[in-house]
Amino acid sequence: MIARIEEKFRRIITEKLQQFGGGEEYFSALDAELTKTNNFDIVSLLFEYPASNVVVSGRFGNFIARVHSLGGFRFDSLLVFNGGLRKGDAPILQHGYRLKMHSEPVAYTFFDDSFYMGRTALAIDKVLRSTYNGYIRNIRVAYDGSPEKRENVSSIFRYHN
Asked: Using CA atoms, how far apart are residues 149 and 135, in angstroms rounded to an integer?
């Protein structure tokens, strides 16, 4: 079953690479594909392992928040930031589900559709550290296109092996 879902995702990746050849349009097209309800099975693979404190952003993050609000994914806390962070927009918390201030720093898992340079995660990590007494410990993405493998990033598909 998992192999079938991974193959489905590989077909989408191949199609979008042929269509766009990479770059911003490619990553936006992947994001659009992963937020379609008929691709929910791919996104579900990201949540095979539980995460209690979750942070997301953009269109993909709003999709995860909708699924969470319908009871599809369960988290102790969920922070949803705006999109456009990889383009330099300032991170703004749009929704905080069960957001509490803690005396000890809180480790979050950042979920996203794709990862390349890590700008989105870095921007959110800075805000978590400065405003919410938290930090990003792990990053889980559907597509990892970064040239070098990072220890705290896990993915369904990694472009560079």
From this structure: 20
